[in-house]
Amino acid sequence: MSNGEEEGYSAAGEVSLIKARRTLWESVWRGLKSAPPTALFGMTVISIYLIIAIFAPLLAPHGEAEIFPMSYAPWGEDFLFGTDQLGRDVLSRLIYGAQNTIGIALATTLLAFAIGGSLGIAAAINHGGLVDNLLSRSVDILMAIPSLIFALILLSMFGATAINLILIIAVLDSTRVYRVSRAVSLNVVVMDYVEAARLRGEGVGWVMRREILPNIMPPLIVEFGLRFCFVFLTIAALSFLGVGIQPPTADWGSMVRETAGLIQFAKYDITAALTPMLPAAAIALLTVAVNFVVDWFLHKTSGLKDEH
Asked: Can you name the residues that pair with 67 across neighbouring β-strands?
C-alpha cells in the first residue's frame, strides 16, 4: 500500500471518528432537551454535589477536623452555619461530608454491582444447575435477615472502619443486585446470538461481557441509581447510630447526631434548631434528585411515550 493510500485511510478514519463523536453529542443534547423539569433539576443537583465532593478541600473555609475555641457558636460571618459541640465549623464539615458520604456510598454501590451483577449473570447462564441453585439459596438466606440489623451486628464484630463498612454493605446489597441481574439475564440467555456464541466455543466470561451485559444495561443502570440511594441512606443511618463513618471524618449522618441537641434551644435561637436540619436536608435533597433522574431514565428506556 502506498503512502498516499495510507494517508487516505487515516484521514477517512479521523473523519468517521469525528462524525461518531458529533452524533453522540447530538443524541445526548437531544435527550437533555427532551428531559422533564424534574430530571433537569435532579441532574443539576447531582452535578453540584459532585463538584462540591471533588473540590471539597478548595471550597471548605476551614479544615475538616479543625477545632476553634468557641463551641456551638451562632451563625455569623466567621462561621456561616456556626460550630458544633467541639468547635468545628459546620459548613466545612458539610462540604467534607459530601466527599466522604457520597464517595463511600459510590464505592460501595460499585462493589455491590460488581459482585451481584457478575454472579447474577453467571447464575442465569447456569439456570437450573448447581451454581444457580447454590447462589440463589445463599442469597435467599442473606435477604431473610434485615440488612440494617445484620450490618450493625457485623460492624460491631469486625470494627466500624471505612473498609469494613464498604465491604459489609456491598456484600449485603449485592443480594438485591443479584436478583435483578439474574431476572433480566434469563430473558437474554435464551436468545439465538447467545447460543451461537456458545457454539463458537466462546468462554462464559466472554459471553457475559459481550453478549449479555450490553443487552441488560438499561435496567441495571436504573437499579444502580436506586441502589445508590439505599446505600447512601444506609450509611447515613449507621453513622447516626454510631457504627458508620467514624469521627473525626465528617459524615452527614453523624453530623445529625452530633448537633441534634441544639433542637432544644429553638425557642431561644431558631438558627440553632436549624443546624441539625442542614445535613438531614443534604441527604434528602440528593436522594430526591437521584430518584428524579432514575424515574426519567426508566421512562425513557421503557419505550413508553408521553401522551399530549
From this structure: 88
Domain ranges of the chain: 38-69+89-302
- pTM for this entry: 0.82
CB 253 within 8 A of CB 235: yes
Contact 224, 293 (CB under 8 A): no
Residue 269 has pLDDT above 60, yes or no: yes
E strand or H helix at 108, and its extent?
helix 90-125
Contact 301, 222 (CB under 8 A): yes
C-alpha cell at 58: 478548595
Burial code (b: 16+ CB inside 10 Å, e: under 16) for 243-273 equals bbbeeebbbbbbbbbbbeebeeeeeeeeebb
pLDDT of residue 25: 55
Whether the predicted pLDDT of 72 surpasses 90? no
Contacts of 187 (CB under 8 A, 6+ apart): none
Cα–Cα distance for residue pair 34/28, rounded to 1 Å: 10
Instruction: Give the pLDDT confidence of 85-104 residue by residue, as tens digits.
Output: 888 888 999 999 998 889 99
Residue 52 makes CB contacts below 8 A (sequence gap 6+) with 59, 95, 98, 99
Kindly report, residue by residue over 112-160, the tens digit of the pLDDT.
999 998 999 888 888 878 888 898 899 988 888 888 888 888 888 888 8
> Is CATH 3.40.50.2300 correct for 38-69+89-302?
no
